[in-house]
Amino acid sequence: MKRIKIFDTTLRDGEQTPGVNLNLKEKLMIAKSLENLGVDIIEAGFPMASLGDFQGVNTIAKEIRNSTIAALCRATKSDIDRAYEAIKVAQSPRIHTFIATSPIHLKYKLNMTEDEVLERAVEMVKYASTLCSDVEFSAEDAYRSNPEFLVKLFGKVIKAGAKVLNIPDTVGYALPNDYHDFIKYIVNNTEGIEKVDVSVHCHDDLGLAVANSLSGVLAGATQVECAVNGLGERAGNASLEEIVMAIETRKNHLGMYTNINTTGLWRTSKLVSSLSGVVVQPNKAIVGENAFAHESGIHQDGVLKEKSTYEIITPESVGKVDNNNIVLGKHSGRHAFSSYLKDNGIVLEQEALEEAFDRFKKLTDRKKTITWRDIEALVSNNVTLPQEAYKLVSFQILGGNKIIATTTVEIEKDGVVLRESAVGDGSIESAFKAVEKAVGKEVKLRDYSIHSVTDGEDALGEVTVKIEESGEVFVGKALSGDVMEASINALINAVNKMMDYFDNKK
Ligand code: KIV
Ligand code: ZN
């Protein structure tokens, strides 16, 4: 059996998804979840891109001990220095440097010849290897590059010290058979390639990223680059959960395995979706709400008789705990709460645990039956409030179909209570306007959505709000049995994140 290493790029390529903007705390939560999942390499960001990226990578490098931490950088000295500065504290750091190799990129983007690219790549891999023993080299747009050129280039970067060669299909143009043959050609012809890991990195523009990645490993690749929920540039990257479960489910046929603890996949997907604000489509393989739902009578009948009739993987194997049983109640204490989370694979740091317990206690005052799904939502929500934040003290709404909606809010910041009222076309608009007046900021609302966490009249409503400022999008979330309270808190959460982001940028 061949082991396939999982290289997760949710925090780098995934963070390049339009509208995704994770703060430091959120990046760290995702990194911890990836570490618990058993991801071999976490690409934590692109330190040269911004101070926020640098700090994100650096914090993750300090905190994560069981996964290699990679930082992306262009093939320039200053980029490499910045990347190394961010990851040098890691238990296992990796510099991931790249340069484009395709004729299109050389002509229109880099204005360089193949010889110049080769010289730069070799020089920069040599330089990076003086700083860090683990250097990955990526040939951007490799699939549209001249394969003979790649073979020559890869042979030389291996001699220069690269330990991993990445062969991306940057624009998602490949078809599975062609990508297979392309990787095979490189594996068969590159001098010294048996000493290094060969990596595939496929984008999903034609919906083939997972298929192409699997073709790549069948052709000899030993590392797959992927992202949770398939996040990434444009149509995204290969989805981590699909790659992992394809290998796991067909391991005997493929002769391969990964080190991923598959029961953490569902939870990690939920966390990434909640923090990124990118909703997972219900019919998505492995982590979609309907991935294990059997609707037709014939299918239901078959599954009741014997699960394997229509089920090739079980929900439990990916950690989907699908019951509406009452799990905890009003009298459950801190210890029962944390043991329950632990039993279900959720390990929180002390501060996050205290915050979650606090929210749990408030919830038990308002909701009779607390189910697993409530707890799941409660743990992944509202944990990212920066300090010094605005907090909702109270709100009052006057509404109806014959009167103008009016909302008064009281919001606290630094011990000062700000009270404002506003009217609007409906309760949500009046509430949002009142919040804007209180925080002294007009916000551009990009999206608003609400969904109920469980069934029943006392179900919790989870509201997601996206606001935009200077081209950046901020996602606010909140959970409550009262949809107006959840809506106001979600907006305040987004405003807090926006303020935090611009304060840190100063
Ligand atoms: O898609 C791509 O080519 C990349 C590289 C920078 C690895 O993301
Ligand atoms: Zn990419």
From TrEMBL:
Q: Which UniProt keywords apply?
A: Amino-acid biosynthesis, Branched-chain amino acid biosynthesis, Cytoplasm, Leucine biosynthesis, Manganese, Metal-binding, Transferase
Annotated region (Regulatory domain), positions in chain: 391-506
User: GO CC annotation: what is one?
Assistant: cytoplasm
InterPro entries, per the entry: 2-IPM_HCS-like (IPR050073), 2-isopropylmalate_synth_dimer (IPR013709), AIPM/Hcit_synth_CS (IPR002034), Aldolase_TIM (IPR013785), LeuA/HCS_post-cat (IPR054691), LeuA_allosteric_dom_sf (IPR036230), LeuA_bact_synth (IPR005671), PYR_CT (IPR000891)
The family database entries (CDD domains) matched by this protein are listed as: DRE_TIM_IPMS
Top-rank taxon of the source lineage equals Bacteria
- EC code: 2.3.3.13
State which pathway it belongs to.
Amino-acid biosynthesis; L-leucine biosynthesis; L-leucine from 3-methyl-2-oxobutanoate: step 1/4
Q: Which residues bind Mn(2+)?
A: D13, H201, H203, N237
Molecular function in Gene Ontology? 2-isopropylmalate synthase activity; acetyl-CoA C-acetyltransferase activity; manganese ion binding
Q: One of this protein's GO BP terms?
A: L-leucine biosynthetic process
* Gene3D superfamilies given in the database record: 1.10.238.260, 3.30.160.270, Aldolase class I
* Location of the Pyruvate carboxyltransferase domain: 4-266
Kindly give the SUPFAM superfamilies that the UniProt entry links to this protein: 2-isopropylmalate synthase LeuA, allosteric (dimerisation) domain, Aldolase
Please give the function described in this protein's UniProt entry: Catalyzes the condensation of the acetyl group of acetyl-CoA with 3-methyl-2-oxobutanoate (2-ketoisovalerate) to form 3-carboxy-3-hydroxy-4-methylpentanoate (2-isopropylmalate).
**Record's NCBIfam families?**
leuA_bact, PRK00915.1-2, PRK00915.1-3
PANTHER family recorded for this chain? Answer: 2-ISOPROPYLMALATE SYNTHASE 1, CHLOROPLASTIC-RELATED, HOMOCITRATE SYNTHASE-RELATED
Per UniProt, subunit arrangement is: Homodimer.
Q: Which family does it belong to?
A: Belongs to the alpha-IPM synthase/homocitrate synthase family. LeuA type 1 subfamily.
In Swiss-Prot or TrEMBL terms, this protein is called 2-isopropylmalate synthase
